[in-house]
Amino acid sequence: MTTxxxxxxxxxxxFDLEKIRADFPILNQTINGKPLVYLDNAASSxxxxxxxxxxxxYYLTSHANVHRGIHTLSQRATDLYEAAREKVRxxxxxxxxxxxxxxxxxxxxxxxxxxSFGHAHLQPGDEILVTEMEHHANIVPWQMIAAERGAxxxxxxxxxxxxxxxxxxxxxxxxxxxxxxxVHVSNALGTINPVAEIIAEAKRRGIPTxxxxxxxxxxxxxxxxxxxxxxxxxxxxxxYAPTGIGIxxxxxxxxxxxxxxxxxxxxxxxxxxxxTTYNDLPFKFEAGTPDIAGAIGLGAAIDYIxxxxxxxxxxxxxxxxxYATQRVxxxxxxxxxxxxxEKSSVLSLFVExxxxxxxxxxxxxxxxxxxxxxxxxxxxxxxxxxxxxxRASFAFINTKTEVxxxxxxxxxxxRMCR
Amino acid sequence: xxxxxxxxNEIVEEFEDCLDWEDRYQRIIDYGKQHPDIPDxxxxxxxxxxxxxxxxxxxAELDGERVKLQATSDALIVKGLVSLLLRVYNNRRPEExxxxxxxxxxxxxxxxxxxxxxxxxxASMIQQVQLYAQAFTILRxxxxxxxxxxx
Lengths: 418, 151
What we know:
The complex is a heterodimer.
Chain A: H1 17-22, E1 30-31, E2 34-35, E3 37-38, H2 49-61, H3 72-92, E4 100-103, H4 106-121, E5 127-131, H5 140-149, E6 152-156, H6 166-172, E7 177-183, H7 195-204, E8 209-212, H8 224-227, E9 231-235, E10 246-250, H9 252-255, E11 268-272, E12 275-278, H10 292-308, H11 310-328, E13 334-336, E14 346-351, H12 356-365, E15 368-369, E16 371-373, H13 378-383, E17 389-393, H14 400-417
Parallel strand pairs in A: 3-15, 5-6, 5-7, 7-8, 8-9
Antiparallel strand pairs in A: 1-2, 4-10, 9-10, 11-12, 13-14, 14-17, 16-17
Helix pairs in contact in A: 2-10, 3-10, 4-5, 11-14, 12-14
Chain B: H1 3-14, H2 21-34, E1 48-49, E2 56-63, E3 66-73, H3 76-89, H4 94-99, H5 104-107, H6 122-143, E4 148-150
Antiparallel strand pairs in B: 1-2, 2-3, 2-4
């Protein structure tokens, strides 16, 4: 499907925004007496009615355990669950649905890879290359397996804009590098990293790659084959799906050679006390009863995203980010943390003479929900010498009026704290 | 009425003329601005109260029968609340501290700052003050000879 969009500006959204917002019942409420302005989308997105209804319809009509039953409901639940897997496959343009593993979230996906890959391949002295702007979920699992295997986790540094220093990436790659694990879009800074270039170079040297795509899939189309990554992880709840469901994409060739992460039901072929053989992909990595309802909700969320289209979503979110950036810079003493040329819809701020948590508390009184803190990326805060930042993160459901409300509330908060 | 309850009542009275949340927050912020700093030797990891968003440092010692508290935060609203908590709990007997929860926080309409979800270290600070009080009670029972004791 191709759509032609007229130029998108902050005054002309590429879709009927009011109609879209009506799909999100949670938005229609007041917080502390003020209409809610939800600008914490990067932490977790809100859920459209279509997702909530898919989950509730599943429980009302089709729930049973998957892959086990001879009865009709079990078959129905299995069909719905596997249909959701196919939707994820199509979303990422993976070659096969065997490459799509349902997990709890990106955190579990990365722990799975660190554990299974680490036990199969890491040796003392090996190195795992990450970046300075990783979420803790793409640092700590690697540190844990590195400690166990005698390997080291090395970060690629970034510059003052929050962009990776690519010459350092090339310099740090070595024969000791056994994995390159990078975030595509930084949750703390909004930086879009040149993952295609990173993957191409790692591939040229025969080093496996993992991409943390949590902040990518809500905003732009992903083609894992074109990207060439061996692993790609994301969380459903940032993509308008329920919490507790996420995806690990892994190239079939590499996944089939990895040992399982957890043992239990569904992941086995035959079990006996003399030995157990494992099930085929993707089930080898899905021990126990999965989050069936969550997977179905994720499928519905993907349908919802397609009904709007990534092109329109990206264009509107860019308009929101550009407008918010321009407005916020009108305020004296505001420093934007993360000014990369390629940015996604995250605006991280530090205001001289104030503490982000004070500003966030006052914004909450004004009905504006933002995130304050280190965004689970403490090395980023250390790099920019701030204790924390205030982060407004936008989604296509946000409006120009909401950006204005955010700016007004921020001005008021700064006035009160100075 | 013990000293802690008295101090709490005074604070509640001070906030009675606040018209709205803005008034209340502004007053808390002003208390935060006026709050005296604590010695640098207390602003170290050992005295940090765990909380995700802002940092609270709390130092406690037993001086005779009374608990001496020194505390601060890097965020103003939290620092303001810290200063109120010190008005209530500083220089009190440990058993009184244990018997008197900080009801004033709710009465002046700031209870959301105490929820765990806020993760601003304030709930942890109150817990910490109570733990110190508990420890000092045990210590005093064990020793019964006075003097200044550090924990």
